[in-house]
Amino acid sequence: MNNLTKMKIMKPANEVFEAVVDPEKIGNFWFTSSSARWEQGKTITLRYDEYDAQGDIQVLEIEDNRKIVYRWGYEDGGEGNVVTITLNESENGGTIVEVNEEGFDDNDEELLNQMIGNKEGWVYMLTCLKGYLEFGVSGLRAALVKPLYG
């Protein structure tokens, strides 16, 4: 099962790409910190200070200014989920950012709740990215209250 989320950001694809892969920029809209620049084959440690949370991702594929693919949630011995972020510059300006997350268990009793929570998370991240890149707003990141479930 996969979950697809899209948003248009009125900036060129190279600026959107750099906001994600550059550890100096990612803290302005998504994670508190990233241990290194995202490059294919690297394991990156991401941290959310506000939630006292930290985890690793494996960067599976990078296509400059076009695609970022990584795996997360594999630390407990499972396969984890694979996230593909695709950047498509639109003809009338801006970039369509598509986030596709795969790896959800179709048989999990909590699948619907997981899919809804996942969609909310990606919409929030993309909204923070849009605010950061288009308007210079960097105070939205981690403003949500951590959910009481899982």
Task: Write a brief structural summary.
The protein is an alpha+beta fold. It is 25% helix and 33% strand.
What does this structure look like?
Helices cover 25% and strands 33% of the residues. The chain is α+β, with helices and mostly antiparallel strands and 150 residues long. The protein contains 3 helices and 7 strands. The chain has a single domain, classed as 2-Layer Sandwich (Alpha-D-Glucose-1,6-Bisphosphate, Chain A, domain 4), CATH 3.30.530.20. It is globular and about 40 Å long. The protein has a 7-stranded antiparallel β-sheet.
What characteristic shape results from the CA principal axes? Answer: globular
Order of helices and strands: EHHEEEEEEH
Strand order of the largest sheet: 1-7-6-5-4-3-2
Top CATH class: Alpha Beta
Number of domains: 1
The share of residues in helices is: 25-40%
Q: In DSSP terms, counting alpha (H) and pi (I) runs of 4 or more, how many helices? A: 3
Secondary structure category:
alpha+beta
Annotated CATH architecture: 2-Layer Sandwich
Q: How much strand?
A: 25-35%
CATH superfamily: START domain
- Overall pLDDT score: 92
| Named CATH topology | Alpha-D-Glucose-1,6-Bisphosphate, Chain A, domain 4
Rg, Cα atoms, Å:
15 Å
Give the beta-strand count.
7
